[in-house]
Q: What sequence folds into this?
């Protein structure tokens, strides 16, 4: 057994630790590390080295050089530092390298030494220079804290969303603090600093003195301090060689010891030491399995021992877990084999934990590989999540490995393969030495219609790199026009955007492009563009109808659409014009347009309307009353009702009202007036073109049976029965119907035979019917 | 509450629940008390989705109608605008928000676009300087609203005019979106058929949208077998004719809005003796019309002439049931009788309402003018005297009958004659302009643009060919026990429904010639299904066809489709969707233009 734990060293009474070399670094360092600025990213991240950081000579050979290595020492990038002197280096949570310059400018580089952006820590920092800087990580992202030459602190808790906070002054601080660090409590970043024997906590509002509980007396100065990665624990190192460890809230002491070293350590690391659980049952199981492999009966003994203690399940779990924390594949295998062996003797051991551990270890071993160089521990991996690990692989341009992992873990395409392919494509578009065609083709070949891939995102990246043509080519593959169009607009390809919008059928999108185009192009070009796009043109017309009437007219004019122009002016004559002259003028324009449209009917009708308007105006002047906007029919009616029969006649003649309608009109008007005398005169003026039944009907409507009867006798034979029934002469109606030998008429009369008086009539009809049937 | 939606072959309550859920989720996003400011047009359709009680459960305390100036005072945390994406409404909203800002304590403003968020509108809000005032700006994709167990409508009033007159395809886009929503809930529809330009475009958009969603494979077993997209302008004739089913006539005479009808109250006065009818109610009687009422479901699709006998039969059954109480001797029997009373009383109430409505309708249908009008319509549809000026129409104009009635008739004649002779057309137009006013020249232009009114070109009348091939006119119609869809118009079989019927059996290949005469392309598209979702039909199992009328559908057409669904050997059941439930009157009205 001891062969497994040979490299473990005791730490205190109950804990052990081990230290082993992950990689023999591949880098070819010429300088001592202590001459460099070094920053290693947490979670097996990259390492940045800035050589000769303090040299200021102009000579290229001695200029500072920034090197970036993977955790295994594989060179990722190397560049000459051409900017100002760097005070501090650090990695953000997104694995971006933050380089804090003496002047307070922070330069941000990617993993591959690609410059991303820069920002400044403010004027105060610029003036007083940077004395010291720290990069720290919080749950919101990564922050930068600066100590300026004026001994003031400035910090930004999240460089992704830069908000500078200048911390309050520390009273009496004349020189740099002996040590300081950033604490993060209750989601707020604080600064803990030591000035001689005093500790101060700075938050954004105040500076307060603090004392760690249970601090041994006699401390005259704090030389170093360190916080744990989680900001939960704090360690302080004093000039007496004493170390205080406690919670970062400074409320509780955890332990202390004296290491009897007076000189300040170069660096102090505070780790939460991972405790390996008692290996007892698991260890036994491991042993049992080994014996089993040796075909020794000892296997049975060990197994029995565990089973007797009832700890087999626990033993299997321990082996699985332990495997996770091992870095050596051989060791992992042994432990897993043991777990698998133990599992055979258990009835119902859920297989998930075993399977998942196997999967996780395969992934971990793959990324820990020397060539990849991400030495994650199992716990770190679990904290990081697979998604973030994939992101980091993508960041290192390790696309094939990332895809293999996705496929191996069977991640859903949208979260897995598609996402990585999309990243790959975004990288691909930045390869400036490859032609647009080739890049677009390569991307489409690889991505095809993979679900969840956003071609517009890739295109946006291409556009960001100044490759507009490539972006357009890529957008061709984007099926969602809602995504295509805004980007095309941004790239000032409005006309292309327009045709894409039209293709989609989404009218709102078309409108959006149209309004863009309208601002972008001069009017002539805009109209020309519309002309080639009938759908867009119709939509724009709709828009103008409600928003810009004048433009609508121009559009019709451009298209020589005289018919619509005519209608436009007709509308205007009602809506826009108040004065008769204006209305008539609008109508004249309309009529002209209709002539041009070869719509003679509409032109003539419009001219009639002009004539009528003028006439109505004259009637109002001469007779008073309301005539304007009455229809011709109603104008004539109004004249008759007002007793102006002559004028009515004249108007009817002028406008050639057909006889039939004129008769209906007069009949209705005179009946309304109850001018029975005039009505009778009218009925005798000539033979009625509408017959006399309407006369009967209208008299009955006015409840004048007497007058109605006068006309009933004049009704022609076809409608006689109807007329007689209307005036209530059932008997005579029966006679006529019998005479006509018309079955329909007979039934009609019969249905009117109600009450006793009509009894005889009914009989008469029945007899006639019977007779007709005999024949 | 909406149980009737789940009685059909396809459970449309699933859709209703889905849109209700979406609404609740939105309301809950705006935490705290709320006031809703309504685009008035939306209240009707929303009523079919959610009653006030649902809104109240989610802390909606006040409701206002959207109008200019400032909002009425309301002590609420959130003010939510429910609006269609229209620019003119954005102007009003901006006015509201700005005056509210001046008023004092700040509220949270939100905006819910129905059915779609609009960049154009948001740009307008931005230009007016209020876009930033809205915390949530979201869309509520209420495209297809379930009206009944087999009926969906977008209730988009302007759809026909926009599509066919103004070249604005917005409602087609919404229709396609609505169909995508349906497919998300009821599975991919494997086959799409269509006839007409708009149908083609909707199908294209659907195919395109499907490509946009390639990521999410639809794994729902398809409920619909086919989709049939039909342009209204393929069949301009049907809506012009007077519908003769019970529901159709209610709609023709009183107008059904969002499944409600308002009726003159006189006939519904509670009959009390000695009252002398003094206190007649003056407020219109509002009734909801859907299959939730058993009796209504039974009679609504019948020819009106067959309704009377059903009603009297029902009356006899119900009074017989009430007579039962005299036979009830034992306590048990009486108890049983009493337990049935509520149901019987409801049935009696329903019967009374139906009878009253039938009487109201009968007053109209027995009038001489109704008879004359119907005669003319039927003459046109059967091809008699369609090429000369019609006396009845002339008289209607001379007597200044309603313009819509006149236009319906003239258009009907034009459609039944493949356009009118120029002389006849001009005569009608002149008569109309002189009688009703020259401003109606704009309306006439619109009708001509829509193809409802046109001069005959090429001197050829295609209508007889269409009529004969599709058997649109049936002389031997049985109104009581129909054997053919032509019963819904007492002789005329709606062209649109005939197309659906022929598609189902024997297929459109048999009528290629007519399809070529009718406007627009006809087409078929397949949407491949993964093998696991392919349907194996049981022998005798009916197919389900979703038929979508782009530009509106009438109740008579719906009745005809229901008739086909119920045919024992029909083989196809229909679910009907449309941009708008309409009739000839509302249709023409939407096409009319009144400049003042």
A:
């Amino acid at each position: 057994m001891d062969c497994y734990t040979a490299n473990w060293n005791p730490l205190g009474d109950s804990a052990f630790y081990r230290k082993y070399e992950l990689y023999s670094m591949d880098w070819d360092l010429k300088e001592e590390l202590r001459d460099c600025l070094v920053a290693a990213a947490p979670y097996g991240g990259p390492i940045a080295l800035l050589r000769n950081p303090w040299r200021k000579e102009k000579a290229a050979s001695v200029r500072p050089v920034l090197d970036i290595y993977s955790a295994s020492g594989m060179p990722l990038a190397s560049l000459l530092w051409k900017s100002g002197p760097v005070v501090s280096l650090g990695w953000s949570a997104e694995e971006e390298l933050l380089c804090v310059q003496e002047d307070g400018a922070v330069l941000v580089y990617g993993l591959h030494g690609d410059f991303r952006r820069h920002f400044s820590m403010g004027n105060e920092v610029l003036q007083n220079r940077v004395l010291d800087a720290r990069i720290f990580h919080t749950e919101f992202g990564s922050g930068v804290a600066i100590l300026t030459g004026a001994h003031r602190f400035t910090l930004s808790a999240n460089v992704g969303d830069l908000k500078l906070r200048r911390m309050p002054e520390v009273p009496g601080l004349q020189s740099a603090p002996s040590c300081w660090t950033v604490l993060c409590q209750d989601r707020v970043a604080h600064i803990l600093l030591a000035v001689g024997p005093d500790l101060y906590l700075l938050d954004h509002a105040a500076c307060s003195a603090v004392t760690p509980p249970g601090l041994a007396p006699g401390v005259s100065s704090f030389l170093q301090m360190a916080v744990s990665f989680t900001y939960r624990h704090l360690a302080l190192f004093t000039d007496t060689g004493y170390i205080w460890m406690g919670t970062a809230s400074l409320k509780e002491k955890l332990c202390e010891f004296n290491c009897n070293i007076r000189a300040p350590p170069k660096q102090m690391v505070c780790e939460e030491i991972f405790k390996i659980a008692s290996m007892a049952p698991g260890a036994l199981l491991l042993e049992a399995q080994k014996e089993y492999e040796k075909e020794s009966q000892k296997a049975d003994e060990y197994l029995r021992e565990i089973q007797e203690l009832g700890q087999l399940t626990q033993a299997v779990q321990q082996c699985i877990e332990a495997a996770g924390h091992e870095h050596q594949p051989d060791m992992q295998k042994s432990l897993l084999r043991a777990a698998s062996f133990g599992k055979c003797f258990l009835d119902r051991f859920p297989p998930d934990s075993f399977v998942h551990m196997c999967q996780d270890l395969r992934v971990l071993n793959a990324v820990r590989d020397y060539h990849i160089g991400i030495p994650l521990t199992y716990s770190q991996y679990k904290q990081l999540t697979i998604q973030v690990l994939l992101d980091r692989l993508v960041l290192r341009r390790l696309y094939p490995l990332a895809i293999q992992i996705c496929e191996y873990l069977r991640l859903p395409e949208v979260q897995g393969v598609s996402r990585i392919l999309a990243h790959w494509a975004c990288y691909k578009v930045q390869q400036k030495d490859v032609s647009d065609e080739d890049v677009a083709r390569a991307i489409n070949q690889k991505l095809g219609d993979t679900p969840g891939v956003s071609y517009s995102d890739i295109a946006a990246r291409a556009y960001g790199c100044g490759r507009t043509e490539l972006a357009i080519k890529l957008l061709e593959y984007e099926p969602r026009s809602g995504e295509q169009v805004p980007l095309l607009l941004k790239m000032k390809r409005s006309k292309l955007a327009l045709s894409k919008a039209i293709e989609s059928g989404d009218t709102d999108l078309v409108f959006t492009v149209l309004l863009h185009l309208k601002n972008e192009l001069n009017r002539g070009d805009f109209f020309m563009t519309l002309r080639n796009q009938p759908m867009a043109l119709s939509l724009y017309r709709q828009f103008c109808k409600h928003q810009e009437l004048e433009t609508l007219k121009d559009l019709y004019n451009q298209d020589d659409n005289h018919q619509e122009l005519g209608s436009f002016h007709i509308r205007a004559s009602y809506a826009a014009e108040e004065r008769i002259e204006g209305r008539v003028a609008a109508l004249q324009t309309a009529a002209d347009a209709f002539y041009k449209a070869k719509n003679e009917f509409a032109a003539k009708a419009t001219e009639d309307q002009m004539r009528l308007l003028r006439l109505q105006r004259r009637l109002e002047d001469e007779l008073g009353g309301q005539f304007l906007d009455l229809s011709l029919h109603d104008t004539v009616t109004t004249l008759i009702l007002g007793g102006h029969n002559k004028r009515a006649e004249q108007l009817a003649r002028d406008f050639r009202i057909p006889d039939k309608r004129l008769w209906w009109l007069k009949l209705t008007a005179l009946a309304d007036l109850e001018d029975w005398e005039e009505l009778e005169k009218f009925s005798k003026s000539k033979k009625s073109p509408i017959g006399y039944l309407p006369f009967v009907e209208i008299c009955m409507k006015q409840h004048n049976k007497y007058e109605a009867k006068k006309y009933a006798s004049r009704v022609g034979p076809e409608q006689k029965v109807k007329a007689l029934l209307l005036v209530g002469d059932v008997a005579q109606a029966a006679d006529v119907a019998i005479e006509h030998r018309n079955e329909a008429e007979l039934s009609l009369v019969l249905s009117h035979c109600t009450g006793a008086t009509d009894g005889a009539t009914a009989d008469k009809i029945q007899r006639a019917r019977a007779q007709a049937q005999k024949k | 509450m909406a149980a009737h939606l789940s009685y059909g072959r396809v459970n449309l309550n699933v859709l209703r629940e889905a849109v209700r859920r979406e609404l609740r989720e939105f309301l809950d996003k705006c935490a705290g008390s709320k006031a809703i400011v309504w685009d008035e047009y939306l209240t009707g359709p929303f009523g079919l989705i959610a009653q006030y009680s649902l809104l109240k459960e989610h802390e909606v305390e006040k409701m206002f109608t959207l109008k200019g100036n400032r909002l009425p005072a309301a002590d609420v945390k959130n003010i939510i605008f429910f609006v269609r994406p229209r620019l003119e409404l954005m102007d009003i909203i901006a006015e509201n928000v700005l005056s509210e800002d001046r008023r004092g304590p700040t509220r949270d403003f939100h905006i819910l676009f129905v059915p779609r968020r609009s960049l154009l509108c948001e740009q307008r809000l931005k230009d007016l300087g209020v876009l930033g005032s809205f915390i949530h700006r979201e869309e509520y994709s209420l495209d297809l609203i379930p009206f009944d167990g087999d009926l969906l409508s977008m209730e988009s009033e302007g759809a026909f005019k926009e599509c066919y007159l103004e070249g604005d395809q917005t409602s087609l886009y919404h229709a396609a979106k609505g169909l995508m929503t349906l497919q998300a809930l009821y599975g991919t529809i494997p086959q799409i058929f269509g006839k007409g330009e708009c149908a083609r475009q909707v199908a294209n958009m659907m195919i395109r949208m499907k490509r946009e969603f390639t990521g999410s494979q639809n794994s729902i077993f398809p409920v619909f077998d086919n989709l049939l997209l039909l342009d209204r302008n393929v069949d301009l004739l049907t809506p012009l004719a007077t519908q003769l089913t019970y529901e159709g006539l209610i709609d023709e005479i009183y107008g059904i809005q969002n499944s409600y009808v308002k009726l003159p109250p006189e006939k519904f006065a509670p009959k009390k003796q000695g009252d002398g009818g003094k206190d007649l109610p003056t407020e219109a009687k509002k009734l909801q019309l859907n299959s939730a009422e058993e009796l209504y479901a039974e009679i609504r699709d019948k020819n009106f002439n067959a309704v009377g006998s059903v009603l009297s039969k029902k009356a006899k059954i119900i009074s017989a049931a009430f007579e039962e109480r005299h036979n009830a001797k034992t306590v048990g029997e009486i108890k049983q009788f009493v337990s049935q009373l509520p149901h019987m009383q409801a049935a009696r109430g329903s019967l009374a309402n139906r009878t009253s409505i039938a009487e109201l309708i009968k007053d109209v249908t027995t009038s001489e003018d109704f008879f004359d009008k119907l005669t003319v319509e039927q003459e046109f549809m059967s091809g008699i005297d369609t090429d000369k000026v019609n006396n009845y129409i002339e008289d209607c104009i001379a007597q200044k009958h309603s313009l819509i009635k006149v236009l319906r008739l003239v258009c009907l004649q034009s459609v039944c004659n493949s356009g009118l002779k120029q002389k006849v057309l001009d005569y009608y137009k002149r008569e109309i302009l002189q009688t009703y006013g020259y401003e109606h020249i704009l309306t006439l232009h619109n009708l001509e643009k829509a193809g409802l009114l046109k001069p005959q070109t090429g001197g050829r009348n295609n209508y007889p060919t269409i009529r004969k091939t599709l058997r649109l006119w049936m002389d031997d119609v049985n109104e009581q026990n129909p054997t053919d869809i032509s019963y819904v118009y007492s002789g005329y079989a709606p062209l649109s429904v005939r197309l659906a019927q022929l598609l189902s059996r024997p297929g459109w290949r048999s009528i290629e010639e007519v399809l070529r005469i009718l406007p627009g392309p006809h087409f078929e598209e397949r949407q491949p299904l993964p093998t696991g979702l392919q349907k194996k039909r049981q022998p005798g199992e009916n197919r389900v066809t979703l038929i979508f009328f782009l530009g509106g559908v009438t109740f008579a057409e719906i009745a005809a489709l229901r008739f086909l669904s119920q045919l024992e050997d029909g083989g196809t059941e229909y679910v009907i969707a449309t941009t708008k439930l309409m009739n000839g009157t509302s249709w023409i009205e939407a096409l009319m233009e009144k400049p003042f």
